[in-house]
Amino acid sequence: MRAFVAIVLLALAGQSVGQVIGFGSCPDVRGVEDFDVRRFFGRWYEIARFYTWYLDGQSCLALDYDAGVDAGLLDYRTSAVTREREMLTGAGEGFYRDSSIYFQMFDWQAPQEYRIVNTDYDRYVVIHSCSEFFYGLMNVQYNWVLGRERQLREEEFSRIDMWIAGSGINLRKFTLTNQMDCPMAPTGMPMRSEDPMRSEMPGRTREPGMSEMPGRTKEPGMSEMPEEPIRTEMPEEPIRT
Predict the structure, then answer these.
(1) d(Cα 17, Cα 140) in Å, to the nearest integer?
(2) What does the pLDDT read at residue 209?
(3) Taking Cα atoms as reference points, which of 108, 105, 124 lies closest to residue 116?
(4) DSSP 8-state assignment for residue 2
(5) Distance of CA 37 to CAs 8, 17, 97, 128, 144, Å?
(6) Comparing C-alpha atoms, which of 120, 16, 127 is closest to residue 63?
(7) Which contacts of 131-137 are long-range, i.e. CB under 8 A and separated by 24 or more positions?
(8) Degrees (nearest 5) of the Cα angle 32, 102, 205?
(9) Nearest 5°: phi and psi at 171?
(10) Alpha carbon distance 135, 215 (integer Å)
(11) Is residue 206 within 8 Å of 195, Cβ to Cβ?
């Protein structure tokens, strides 16, 4: 029995890559109806997330989404600040279908689905990703709350709290992202490189936006900024700053 449990955990570890592991099937969280991807494009800031090991210690996370070179493709750019106050930037591409966007975060992975499950386009968005294993006995999840600004209003937090609590997503697993004393995030998308694989693998990420992945660059010059707490642990109930 112990050997079986060890095999299960190793298998999940190979698939989850920093996601939150839970028991049972994935929550039944539907995507936004009549999702308008063009209204979704633009700048977003990370407000809260499930624990993700490759983002550990990073603050001031900003994401930009824009239309890709072909229909159905999108480009993205990320920036964040490390504990050492260094700027990290990255860029890549993916594709979208209905209310979901797909990225290949690692070379050994197939494109992963990230579902837009709640948004008003102008202020906030909730993104959900979940995969089931062993016939629904276990699942692994990513979840994010993003905002058009670095901070959300109190009434927006309350509305998001209520929606998440009723969706089946575990509100207590979210951790707030530190968005205080942040440098200005880079603007604009980097130049696309000529890559014959692009049309063959629309979900392939060229320069993943995570520090442990290839393609992430460091931009020193933030060391003069005062040290701030990188992340505030979320209370056991609602999301709050």
Answers:
(1) 9
(2) 36
(3) 124
(4) H
(5) 37, 27, 9, 16, 17
(6) 127
(7) 131/15, 131/26, 132/25, 132/26, 133/11, 133/12, 133/15, 134/8, 136/24, 136/25, 136/26, 137/23, 137/24
(8) 150
(9) -60, -30
(10) 36
(11) yes
Integer Cα distance of 193 and 122 in angstroms: 31
> For residues 48 and 234, is the Cβ–Cβ distance under 8 A?
yes
**Main-chain dihedrals φ then ψ at residue 127, nearest 5 degrees:** -115, 135
- What pTM does this model have? 0.72
Domain ranges of the chain: 12-232
Distances (CA, A) of 114 to 103, 141, 143, 144: 8, 10, 9, 10
Give dist(CA 7, CA 140) in Å, integer: 16
Give 50-114 as a DSSP string: E--GGGTT-EEEEEEEEE-SSTTEEEEEEEEE-TT--EEEEEEEEEEETTEEEEB-STTSPPEEE
The CATH number assigned to the domain with range 12-232 reads 2.40.128.20
pLDDT tens string 139-170: 889 899 999 999 999 999 999 999 999 999 99
What does the alpha-carbon distance between residue 235 and residue 174 come to, in Å, rounded to a whole number? 9
Per-residue pLDDT at 120 = 97
Residues in the chain predicted with pLDDT less than 70, given as ranges, are 1-22, 136, 188-241
Strands (E), the chain: 20-23, 42-50, 59-67, 73-81, 87-97, 100-103, 112-119, 124-133, 138-147, 174-177, 217-219, 231-232
> Can you give the pLDDT at residue 56?
85
CB-hemisphere CA count at 13 Å for 135? 0
